[in-house]
Amino acid sequence: MERTEAELIAAVLKGDAASFEPLVQKYSPRVFATARRYARRDSEVEDIAQEVWLKAFDKLKSFRGEAPFEHWLMRMTVRTCYDFLRRHQRNRESSFSELSEPESDWLERFVAAPESALAGAGGAPLLARDLAEPPEAELRKRVLAELSRPSGADPVQFAAGMEKANVERFIYWMQTWVHDLLRVRLAGAARHHGDLGAALKARAQSADVEGLFALERELAAARRLASHPLNPRLVAEHLLMAYNQATRPKADETITR
Question: Which residues contact 176 (CB under 8 A, 6 or more apart)?
Fold first, then answer.
């Protein structure tokens, strides 16, 4: 028997994060439709929707049930859209499809696969060019290979070669991977690493939704501190251990999708 929204919310508040998934699946179309009224690019719409669901999960305990959950969620969606407009009034980059012909030709001279590179850069052409440079491309390959290992990441071995200059970029690639794990788990589609769809699906199946949300927040905080004189090896070890904890299957349950 299908559970009511009240039952799903109660289950989430008791620690069953998987019960949040039916709510995401039911209301994502309306969240996306609202976001499209405020943002032009698909990547921006996806960012808004992701932020809405992060906020909804974090603040679910504040939902009192005095009004329908949908009303509470849509108020949060509109507020998030307004926040987006305030943050993006200036210096917005175009997506590849919005570039002029000279601009797209310029991008293609620097990036072998522009559409794929833009996906990894969240739709930002200048960042896509930078991320496609050989050292960055090699770092992406190394980080994602570690995160996609079926047995889990090896924090000690990976962190042993971590250099201070690479910490911020390592965190960036972890953020995009974790973001995609959440999208695959909750919405069924990756944004950044569609070329690694099979590996994402395999890791997402065992991932703990609440753990992934918590890891996203931790990665955001770590990236803000990446320029500080921290020990890069310890930072990498800590984040990879947190990743393993969020994506390791629980001993007492098997997740099937």
Answer: 120, 122, 192, 193
- In degrees, rounded to 5, the angle at the alpha carbon of residue 180 between the alpha carbons of residues 30 and 238 is 130
CA distances for 8 relative to 3, 21, 91, 111, 219, angstroms: 6, 9, 41, 45, 28
Nearest Cα to Cα of residue 82 among 116, 41, 105, 52: 52
Whether the CA torsion 52, 188, 148, 152 is positive or negative: it is positive
Q: Tokens representing 206?
A: 């065992």
* DSSP label at residue 248: S
Q: What's the whole-model pTM score?
A: 0.63
Give SS3 for 107.
helix
| Residues ≥6 apart with Cβ < 8 Å to 151 | none
- Architecture (CATH level 2) of domain 5-87: Orthogonal Bundle (1.10)
pLDDT digits (tens, 9 = 90+) for 35-77: 988 887 776 787 788 889 888 998 999 998 888 999 999 999 9
The burial of 252, by beta-carbon neighbours within 10 Å (0-12 exposed, 13-18 middle, 19 or more buried), is given as: exposed
CATH topology of domain 133-247: Zinc Finger, Delta Prime; domain 3 (1.20.272)
Decide if pLDDT at 160 tops 60: yes
Per-domain residue ranges of the chain: 5-87, 94-132, 133-247
The two tokens of residue 1 are 């028997």
